[in-house]
């Protein structure tokens, strides 16, 4: 059983849980949205993309985000998933991140999409 992220209580008053694939997607989201230094015992956990909020939206921003995301996912989730591709695109005031990965346990390919407002 995996607990839902963000943590919440279900309709029965218990800790909400989730399935394997949703849990992996939620772990990816945690890595992406955690600010470097936010976790006391793991100061290098995360990507730092939140620090790019004030950077001008450009192709350079998308490329640096792609590098940050791929490196962080390989470091923190490399035992669970194989990152096949990270695609980033900047559109107006949004940064779109697409992560294509393979779950190592059953070799099933998955894609997770995230949008970050800049």
Name the average pLDDT.
Answer: 79
CATH class: Alpha Beta
Count of helix runs: 2
Global structural class: alpha+beta
Question: How is the quaternary structure best described?
Answer: single chain
Low-confidence stretches: none
N-to-C order of helices and strands: EEHHEEE
Assign a percent range to the helix content.
25-40%
The structural domain count equals 1
Strand order of the largest sheet: 3-4-5
What share of the residues does DSSP label as strand, in percent?
25-35%
Q: Any idea what the shape is? A: globular
Question: What is the architecture at the second tier of CATH?
Answer: Roll
Distance between the termini: 35 Å
How would you portray this structure in words?
Helix 1 packs across helix 2 (59-77). By secondary structure, the protein is an alpha+beta fold. The relative contact order is 0.16. The chain has helices spanning 20-33, 59-77; strands at residues 2-3, 17-18, 81-91, 94-103, 108-117. It has a single domain, classed as Nuclear Transport Factor 2, Chain: A (Roll). The mean pLDDT is 79. The protein has two helices and five strands; from the N terminus they run ββααβββ.
Observed structural traits:
5 strands; alpha+beta; Nuclear Transport Factor 2, Chain: A; two-stranded antiparallel ribbon; 3-stranded antiparallel sheet; 118 residues
Secondary structure layout plus pairing:
Blueprint lengths: L1 E2 L13 E2 L1 H14 L25 H19 L3 E11 L2 E10 L4 E10 L1
Antiparallel strand pairs: 1-2, 3-4, 4-5
Helix pairs in contact: 1-2
């Amino acid at each position: 059983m995996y607990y839902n992220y963000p943590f919440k209580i279900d309709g029965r008053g218990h800790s909400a849980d989730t399935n394997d694939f949703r849990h992996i997607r939620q772990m990816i989201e945690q890595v992406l949205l955690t600010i470097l230094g936010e976790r006391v015992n793991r100061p290098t956990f995360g990507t730092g993309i939140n620090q790019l909020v004030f950077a001008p939206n450009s192709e350079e921003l998308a490329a640096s985000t792609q590098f940050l995301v791929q490196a962080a996912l390989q470091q923190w989730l490399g035992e669970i998933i194989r990152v096949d591709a990270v695609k980033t695109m900047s559109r107006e005031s949004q940064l779109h991140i697409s992560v294509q990965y393979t779950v190592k346990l059953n070799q099933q390919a998955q894609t997770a999409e995230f949008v970050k407002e800049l």
